[in-house]
Amino acid sequence: MDTENLKKEEDIRNNIKYLELLSLNFPTIAAASTEIINLEAILNLPKGTEHFLADLHGENEAFEHVLRNASGAIKRKVNEIFGNSLYEAEKKELCTLIYYPEQKLQLIKESVKDLNSWYSVTLNRLVRVCQSVSSKYTRSKVRKALPQEFSYIIQELLHESSADPNKQAYINVIVSTIIETYRADDFIIALCNLIQRLTIDTLHILGDIFDRGPGPHIILDTLCDYHHFDIQWGNHDILWMGAASGNDACIANVIRLAMRYANHSVLEDGYGINLLPLATFAMETYAGDPCSLFGPRIEDEAQKVDEKTKRLLAQMHKAISIIQFKLEAEIIARRPEFGMADRMLLEHIDQDRGVFVLDGRDYEMRDNFFPTVDPASPYRLSPEEREVVDKLHNSFIRSEKLRKHIKCIFRYGCMYNVCNSNLLFHASMPLNADGSLKEVEILGEKYKGRELLSRVGQLVRKAYFADRSDPEKAFATDYVWYLWCGKDSPAFDKSKMATFERYFLVDKETHKEEKGAYYTLRNDETVCDRILDEFGVTGEHRHIINGHVPVKAAKGEKPVRANGKLMVIDGGFSKAYHPETGIAGYTLVYHSRGFQLVQHEPFSSTQKAIEEGQDIKSTTYLVELSSQRMMVKDTDKGRELMVQIEDLKKLLGAYRLGIIKERS
After folding, report:
1. pTM for this structure?
2. pLDDT value at residue 614
């Protein structure tokens, strides 16, 4: 036996236990060979399309629509397939049907006279679209995506060519039988859902699902059932994760933001949080206070409330804000290592003179009514406040819906992700002024770069999952709040979160939040390369992809920076940011030919999309075009498949050498 074969046999024997386990799935030479052929074929298919979204902030209708229309990809596909053979109105109606099949069918059935003819034409059109979007996948992958009750029929339709007259007759019989058996509606819905699913292969959410908009719980209902996605946690997500972990300061922040944006229904109806104790306390304590600075900020017509409700929300908003400052002070006092003593601000209020005194300077206050703040002990909760906090705490930790969603965020999320030569994280990589990685101390140990994000992710998980006996549990629960607003937090990375100053101080200089070095240095290609090297990201075309900081497109800011190494894709999904960004969000699309950035205009409403066919107006920009089409073999998944192929070849060798016996 020659040297090469001896090495192969030695390699097989060294891996014999693993190969014996592998043989349970592939018990014969034929089975192993077939799998190798299948995997080799998959390697030579075009890579699946990845969609990247950031900072959804509860805008469920816009998010749902972007998923349903695949950021305009389905409309482009319909135009490619039908071109001038259909009127624009017909193409628009077909697209709307694909996006919202159940709702659109109801409207069509009310207006169409010859429904059977409409069914026949529409089913044939949908089959053509489905054939197109499924063409880059194996039959096996498409089959796994099919609804069970229509799996066989859809497979037959997808893999038959209508160009052959005999096959067209066969297809026509299938379609007519579907109509005659009154299954046309269900079949259309199944086809439309399949088209949506196959158009987006993988979805990446770069943080901040929660707060500001009215439907983060609806977004998470969709995500938790989505076929393939991941989440890079943002500071707003971490805030809710902290609240679900029982951190009272996080709970207070969550409620304060809900009051600020009139999103009480998210808490009450979405998660079953009982806000009555807070409402009762606020009405009694601030009965004589106009709370004019705390009126809800309403961006959405659907969130309009009457004056009585506005007044109550303002009272609750102020009440929970004062409670929040007290709860945060408790953490700051017991965790001096957080270095946040400068955020203990209630002690600087001179209630007698109605000013805020800091470093010997008086600052004018916009509001000086603090009935629960004792100047002698400003951070002590009143008995009534403590009772409210305890009740809210119990409500949060007992919410089954919140628990389900937070576990989903943990299961599919992390602080960062490396995928197909792209490094994804929500906000920042703490840096020194010279662009070097900044060391951050946690429990006496220093971490930077990849180790820092890994350690932070570990602590976030410990806060929620660890047993009370874990010595890091208490620290981790406090640290989750620090991640929301701490200056060295990779999810925040600013000098302060100036909530108190914006509410109470007139001087706007005090409102400024100084950003960490990363936010300016990331425009430097050398700095980006250093970070990519730190995370082991390789490839000719490698990138950092962030959200967190809205791109002010209206003022000429660009999402692509550092000579293409960095992409910031927070385009302002939240209505609160539309005036600032001038647009309504981005989708970054990575398909087999390169990167495209889709810039969205504001979405009117789901109702108008269904009834009038109003799509989101989106503009697509080419970011990076590959000289060669990217195949599965060029992706992370492809490299995994290559390893599997090598293992299967070793198994074949073991069978042929008689080291492992074939099974019948």
Report:
1. 0.93
2. 81
